[in-house]
Amino acid sequence: MFAFSLAVRHAARRTLHASSLTLAVSLVAARANAQEAGIAIGAHAPSAAVETLDGKAMDLAQYIGKKPTVLEFWATWCPLCKKLEPAMSAAREKYGKDVAFVSVGVPQNQTAERQQAYVTEKQMKGTFVFDKDGAAYKAYKATHTSYVVVVDANGMVVYTGVGPEQDIDSAVKKALPASKRSM
Fold first, then answer.
1. What is this structure's pTM?
2. What are phi and psi of 102, to 5 degrees?
3. Where is average pLDDT lowest: 33-47, 51-65, 87-101?
């Protein structure tokens, strides 16, 4: 009787361990693919009024639906943005002919002039706009600075992420036609 009871307990532990492992793997996978906030994957990218750094009105819609577009919501004071910048620079260099990169400066604790001075000092490349009234921040449901939205050529959101550890190269590839994903 004791041997039978011991065998049942060992079998139960193995089942419990396997179930725990399956649950842990599922949670990690869900966390890696989960979108906790921000504009929904599959949503059509909205228009949003912003300004050029010299104060001229423009709309992000001018970039949407023409070719893949990467929008980064950033600030000069953002440490996460600074850590993300090497990956963004590498992506701009690699995909710049096929993808529009638009850095959207958020209005919290900065001005377009401050952003322009920073871009000039750091010799940053790409298109930089300022979200003076927060219209883009609201339209894209940005949760934080270092928030990245990738939109395909049809205007559909294919990726969103936040933080310095984003795989920008893989995110951009999601927006490219299959023939260009091996770049």
1. 0.78
2. -125, 120
3. 33-47
